[in-house]
Amino acid sequence: MSENDVIDLAAPEKNLDDPVTELLRQGAKKLLSQAIEVELLELLEKYQDLKDFH
To answer: Which value, in Å, is the radius of gyration of the alpha carbons in the chain?
Structure first.
């Protein structure tokens, strides 16, 4: 009476080496790197006057 409508999805390929995928990966890495750098600079600026006297 109960019917299972769940289907298995194909697992993504581990090594996609086509040029478009590589270009997207490089772009994503660059964006992440830039975002992390901005976050770090903002954090350092926020706490630049904080001193530790220990």
So the answer is: 23
Mean local confidence (pLDDT), 6-28: 85
Residue 13: phi and psi, rounded to 5, are -65, 140
Give CA–CA dist 25/23, Å, rounded. 5
Question: What spatial distance separates the first Cα and last Cα of the chain, rounded to whole Å?
Answer: 72
**Tens of pLDDT along 28-47?**
999 999 999 999 999 999 99
Euclidean distance between CA atoms 37 and 43, whole angstroms: 10
Phi, psi of 52 (to 5 degrees): -115, 110
Tokens 């830039």, residue? 34
